[in-house]
Amino acid sequence: MEEEDEDIPLAVEIGGETRDLYSREPSDKQSQCNEAPVGVTVITGYLGSGKSTLVNYILNSQHGKRIAVILNEFGEEIGVERAMINEGEGGALVEEWVELANGCVCCTVKHSLVQALEQLVQMKERLDHILLETTGLANPAPLASILWLDEQLESAVKLDSIITVVDAKNLQFQLNGNRDSSSFPEAFLQIAFADVVILNKVDLISSEDCEGNLGELEKEIHCINSLAKIIHSVRCQVDLSKILDCRAYDAAHVAHLEALLEENKSLTTSDLHDNSLRTLCICELQKVDLEKVRVWLEEILWDKKYSMDVYRCKGVLNILNSDQLHTLQAVKEIYEIVPGRKWRKEENQMNKIVFIGRDLNEDILSSSLRACAVTIC
């Protein structure tokens, strides 16, 4: 790449020292500005589903947002030239940076993703959003856990949502080929952990029964994860407002969670085998003891007491001695229960929890949650 080439992208230098992530003291910039955390959207999907197409679409769209896209590497599918390699003292955390004409920033990460994100949000010009494209990552759960609950990282960035891109033409084949396998492949796991599923390449579905075929695919996706929002796309051209700022892990965004649970309240699992990767919803009318619920969850998530493998969990709780609606979220072994808002007088104040996982037993989950309930005379 020649220096006099006028079309080369602008390399972005990251200045300033990287602070200790485990320090309790905020950075000077955070102390002065106290700005809201930057949302991070994780993009995952099966090989050939269209992840690179989605990233390329975002990088070239005139959306008026300053979005950073973190890639495993700059491949030929992404129309981005390589920028400088910034080694830095002791080796750079972020290997390559390039700023694009629409204000987006594209980079690759060498080692510590957490510290690379810290550097990103400390850039001179504030970012609106960060996209993390996870090529080769079979299971997004560990990454989601790090982004969601790391207290120090959360002051700078927050997990917004997990977006899974699936190939409408080949999804059925990918799922059917491994349905009876003892270990579920990427296609199942990526749908199970998704907040939004982009059903891509819908134009390749047979026009003879397009609606019927797409309906079957949606049913298949919702059998695995009924909480996921499904968006149809051709070449991953989607409305960015539907995949950015979803606030899927925001405890304060109670309305979003309530809407999901309302859609799942009549969910039936009678037609599914117990060892399937699936979704089920349980309810309890009585108030529950918060500490008992914590012990109950830890036995399920940590101790595997009932031999169930829970991937995701979302719910609302009616807690004893509290007028607050509490929200519950879990990703694998990590969970949180926090107060959301006051219950409204006209509301049906009940406990409602949706589980996504394998070997789920509805009877055991319902009866064991009932044991956390308190009968009020």
- Mean pLDDT rating: 75
Major sheet description: 8 strands, mixed
* Alpha-carbon Rg, integer: 22 Å
Total of DSSP H or I helical runs spanning 4+ residues? 11
Poorly predicted runs of 5 or more residues? 1-33, 74-95, 268-274
Helix content: 25-40%
Strand content: 15-25%
Beta-strand segment tally: 13
Reading the helices and strands in chain order gives: HEHEEEHEHHEHHEHEHEHEEEEH
Strand order of the largest sheet: 3-4-2-5-1-6-7-8
Distance between the termini: 78 Å
Shape: globular
What class do helices, strands and sheet pairing give?
A: alpha/beta
Give an account of the 3D structure:
The protein has 377 residues and is α/β, with parallel strands linked by helices. It has helices at 28-33, 51-60, 113-121, 141-149, 151-154, 171-176, 186-192, 210-224, 254-264, 290-301, 362-370, and strands at 38-45, 67-71, 94-99, 105-109, 129-133, 157-167, 196-200, 229-232, 277-284, 309-318, 324-331, 334-342, 351-358. Strands 3-4-2-5-1-6-7-8 form an 8-stranded mixed β-sheet, with helices on both faces. Strand 10 and strand 11 (324-331) form a beta hairpin. The longest helix has 15 residues, at 210-224.
Please give a handful of descriptors for the protein shown.
alpha/beta; five-stranded antiparallel sheet; about 25% strand
